[in-house]
Amino acid sequence: MRRVVMLGALVLVGALSVIGVAGQQGQMNLEVDRLEDNLFVLRGGGGNSAAFITSNGVVLVDTKLAGWGQPLIDKIGELTSQPITTIINTHAHFDHVDGNVEFPASVEFVAHENTQRLMRENNGVRGLGPARESPFDGNNANGIPERTFTDTLTLGSGADRVELHYFGRAHTGGDTWVVFPALRVMHAGDAFPAKMVPIMDSNNGGSGIDYPDTLRKASRGITDVDRIITGHSTVMTPADLSEYADFVSWFLSDVRAGKARGESAAEFVSGWQVPSMYSGYNKGPAERLQVYVQDIYDDLP
């Protein structure tokens, strides 16, 4: 089984330059943003990771591309003497989970039940380029989450409390929203990757039709946060998430209208532009966008 390389997506979210430099120079550098004394965002090498330092150890959200697990361990070791005890995977894509295999078996891996299944299936990412090998060997390989949940899960208590929520299909079929209530911060993973037309990975349970509703459920359901860690961009706000839900809904409405006009997916993409009210949003490569429009066409009645 193989994974699809997400280089096209990484270009959009500003991560390709980091990976390219690392590959050319043999360097694997992580940038660290301190949000609180015990919460850090670690950028580079794939999706944004978050390290939450609790009284009992470090809860790490996402582990980046293969080969980036040890740099994460080393960087977190510079931030705290606490061991990494828990890893939460927001979804199954390789730039968020492949580093799992570099962590000791003593770490507890946690994810939505669909993410566990999808990591075992190791499907390619819909709409993206050539494939790459997975580092996971077998259904019960080290790094495959053994603790799963369906709707919600709470880890820890008090100031160490971490809440995991699932609101439905969006980027994949297992997108987890991770909330640190005491700090009023949420990690959205790639359900909110950046201000862009998102990857709607139907190969891994994602849905362009469900996406806006899922974003709205998250926006309205999680009201006790002030900051949102995105999958590949800067830290944003609940207002940004609400706007993003509106943007994806607008995109879906435009796709519906395109199908009603009898346009092919290629014709729709060639004529569609980001509305002026969402200036600064990226629509991505036409060839990839066409795949997602066609998927939506196929799913519409």
Describe this structure in words.
By secondary structure, the protein is α/β, with parallel strands linked by helices. The chain has a single domain, classed as Metallo-beta-lactamase, Chain A (4-Layer Sandwich), CATH 3.60.15. The protein contains 9 helices and 15 strands. α8 (265-271) crosses α9. The longest helix has 23 residues, at 238-260. The protein is globular. It starts with a strand and ends with a helix. Mean pLDDT is 91; it is low at 1-25.
Short descriptors:
6-stranded mixed beta sheet, 301 residues, Metallo-beta-lactamase, Chain A, alpha/beta, disordered N terminus, globular
Detail the topology: elements first, then pairings.
Elements: E1 2-4, H1 7-12, H2 16-25, E2 31-36, E3 39-43, E4 49-53, E5 58-61, H3 69-79, E6 84-88, H4 94-97, E7 108-112, H5 113-121, E8 131-133, E9 147-149, E10 152-155, E11 162-165, E12 177-180, E13 185-189, H6 211-221, E14 227-230, E15 235-236, H7 238-260, H8 265-271, H9 286-299
Strand order of the biggest β-sheet: 2-3-4-5-6-7-9
CATH fold field value: Metallo-beta-lactamase, Chain A
Q: Which CATH C-level class is it?
A: Alpha Beta
The CATH fourth-level homologous superfamily? Ribonuclease Z/Hydroxyacylglutathione hydrolase-like
**What structural class should be given to the helix and strand makeup?**
alpha/beta
Distance between the termini: 33 Å
| Low-confidence segments | 1-25
Secondary-structure element order, N to C: EHHEEEEHEHEHEEEEEEHEEHHH
The amount of helix comes to: 25-40%
Q: Indicate the overall shape.
A: globular
